[in-house]
Specification:
alpha/beta; Archaeosine Trna-guanine Transglycosylase, Chain: A, domain 4; Rossmann fold; 7-stranded parallel β-sheet; 4-stranded antiparallel β-sheet; 29% helix; 19% strand
């Protein structure tokens, strides 16, 4: 006699006309009155009611697409019979906004962090080498490699490392344009991120992004922990590498003076990311992370939801939670900018999800967005920020970024994030410096298969663990990471190649 368990299916809302295959279905599998007429891969969807051509397909009680042809009960529901269309949404601005009950300081959770002179608190203690232009990228890497080779870091265990934050831009751009402003904000945000204790900024000298103008814009002054130089002024590659190494060596004892001390969870700014999403993302990891976000907000902390193209279609769920109409309207105007941006570049918003997302069971951006928005929990959306803009509001906020994870996370870290939580169902290879990235697997299969990359198994939700319990587990684990416990991506050495500022506009 076989001990094999029957496959499982989930109907997520009474209004849904599909179920999600927790396990793959073979023809003949029955759910209620619907019998599978074909194989349905795990994470994918099966119709449980007849859906006429043009009628909405519903998941989570929300529209995720429209039938492109008649769909019979028991049929596999995916891109072969579902299409994405625009439809009217009720934004209901601020109708569900409320004042959260924030715990008094005496009752808030704590972690061990680095208090900076400006009052911000870091979870890591790095020296960053910023580059104004791609032409100085190699020199920045040479500096970091020489420091690593020398072994001097062993003398300063309180310093997490020296990171070259290189990028592909900085010149051949409109210095009065949007792309320049984005790069400027990003560089400033990294320079003042609380996880950075010292900065060396290196340029070529003739680039569009002039270090002198950058310093003037933010009233920056040279100091023992902030140094700048250009290759042309110093006298070439070798001399600049030597000057940079000397600057870093002199910084190390100063940066190492920072010591961890007990701080409140209200000092945490958590970046929220999802990459390599699948059909389980909106069922397990994303809502569990959302529960952790609600807990963080209750403790006075901040969480940043981003990836504007990936909340497209679910923005009406966020506008309802906007603190006021102005906040909600700013989110909608951001959506409209993206519609125009993609149209100008002969793209469409439904180019997202990716082929990997689709293989994992996501059919349209409308479906993906509902799961992505779940990372933001249920509390009031306090503000909407531009890319790499410094986050000053407490609570749940939104930042406009692309959906591409390295670019999105770069904007969030520039905004001040000192911690990052990243959900994945396909197994994204990602890590971040200076902000530690904590990986949450949406299903137990990817958790076991990529155990060296994954920090928490959210697939346990499918086995009966509640969203609330998993959210508490995530919150507690994030406090440990904030206190210095290394994540899997940190152990693997990720983060040197993941600094990717958003490039907007023409390359001249």
């Amino acid at each position: 006699m076989s001990d094999a368990k029957p496959p499982r299916a989930l109907r997520l809302n009474e209004a849904d006309n599909i179920v999600v295959a927790v396990d793959a279905f073979a023809p003949g599998f029955s759910y209620g009155a619907a019998t599978a007429s074909e194989r349905v891969p795990r994470g994918h969807k099966m119709a449980i009611a007849a859906i006429a051509a043009g009628e909405p397909v519903r998941k989570f009680g929300q529209i995720i697409g429209f039938a492109s042809k008649p769909i019979a009960p028991g049929q596999w529901v995916h891109e072969h019979n579902v299409e994405c269309r625009d439809f009217e949404r009720d934004y209901a601005f601020a109708q569900e906004a409320r004042d959260e009950a924030i715990l008094p300081e005496s009752a808030r959770a704590t972690f061990e962090g680095f208090r900076r002179a400006n009052g911000k608190v870091g979870t890591r203690n790095y020296i960053a080498i910023l580059t104004s232009v791609n032409c100085s990228a190699s020199v920045a890497r040479f500096m970091a490699e020489e420091i690593q080779r020398s072994g001097v870091l062993a003398q300063y265990p309180g310093v997490d490392g020296v990171i070259p934050l290189t990028h592909g831009g900085g010149c051949a751009l409109d210095v009065k344009g949007e792309g320049y402003e984005v790069l400027k904000r990003t560089q400033w945000g990294y320079a003042v991120n609380p996880n950075v204790g010292g900065v060396v900024m290196v340029g070529l000298g003739c680039e569009g992004f002039q270090i002198a103008r950058f310093k003037e814009a933010y009233d920056l002054r040279e100091s023992d922990t902030f140094r700048t130089m250009t290759i042309q002024e110093v006298g070439g590659t070798k001399k600049t590498v030597m000057a940079g190494v000397e600057a870093i060596r002199s910084m190390l004892p100063l940066v190492a003076k920072a010591k961890r001390e007990t701080r409140l969870a209200s000092d945490l700014i958590l970046a929220l990311q999802c990459g390599g999403s699948d059909g389980y993302s909106g069922i397990t990891a994303n809502p569990a992370l959302g529960a952790a976000v609600d807990e963080l907000v209750r403790h006075g902390g901040t969480a940043i939801l981003s990836e504007t193209p990936e909340i497209y279609g679910a923005e009406h769920l966020l506008t309802r939670r906007a603190a006021n109409r102005a906040v909600g309207e700013k989110l909608v105007s951001t959506i409209r900018w993206w519609e125009d941006y993609t149209a100008r570049n002969r793209m469409e918003m439904n180019n997202n999800p990716s082929p990997g997302n689709k293989a994992g069971g996501l059919t349209t951006i409308l479906e993906k967005s509902l799961g992505a928005a779940a990372k933001g929990g249920t509390t009031t959306m306090r503000a909407v920020y531009d890319y790499a803009e410094l986050v000053t509001e407490k609570g749940f906020v939104f930042m406009d970024t692309p959906g591409y994870d390295p670019v999105a996370a770069t904007g969030q870290v520039a905004g001040g994030a000192n911690l990052l939580a990243f959900t994945t169902g396909r197994g994204s290879a990602y890590g971040c410096k200076p902000t530690p990235s904590f990986k949450l697997a949406t299903n137990s299969d990817i958790y076991r298969r990529m155990i060296d990359d994954m920090d928490i198994d959210c697939g346990e939700v499918l086995e009966g663990v509640s969203i609330e319990a998993k959210g508490k587990e995530i919150f507690d684990a994030l406090l440990k990471v904030a206190s210095g416990q290394r994540t899997k991506s940190e152990e693997l050495g990720y983060g040197d190649a993941e600094f990717v500022p958003w490039t907007i506009g023409a390359t001249m």
